[in-house]
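hey so u asked for the seq, here:
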Amino acid sequence: MPEIVNQLDVFAKFIDIANEIAKLPALVLPQYQAAAGDMYQISQKLLMANENLSRWRNRFIYFDFRQADARTEFFNLLQEYNTMKSGPEFQRLKFSCHDINNIYSQHISSKIADWFIKKQKKEEVEGIFASLTDADRGMVAFTYDAVVKQIDHFIESVETHVNAGAFNDAEEERLKFKVESKDIAGALVKFNGELSDLVIKFAKIARVPVTI
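ran it, structure tokens below
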């Protein structure tokens, strides 16, 4: 699992450089307001995808097998999950690199040279955005090949126990799922907090409301 988490390095690098950009005194100038607004949009899109993925994972990992109607509630959740996987919501578990690239190209890419004078730093920042806008393979690997498959494996291992009313066995599987996915959990929680902070910062700088 650590190798999957390492694919999220693009997130960490974007968050670091976005925090640097948010601290630039020049960002409050009128000529950069649109760029700040686009940084807000990018941060929000990353956050929304991260939250969507976290939400579904958490609904299973924190499922309460002690509740009186655990069997009914579990299969209701399973039905919701399967419906999600067959609809457009499934694609919203990861961010669209195409959308991110379009936003970046509008007002941010042309301002990088203004914000970072040194050639090496400018190229570093441009490289980080290039990686973010070309991260489909890594995000697919993380979202669908790691997190979703992990949820699917948990469902497969626990469904028979729930059907048989063997909730002690189901609880043991839930705890195994929790332990085995702790690296992913740590990454999702960390990025959720950091991206939320960026959304608030750039909305304030751009003088735009935080919207849903």
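The chain has a mean pLDDT of 93. The first helix runs from residue 2 to 6.
lmk if thats what u needed
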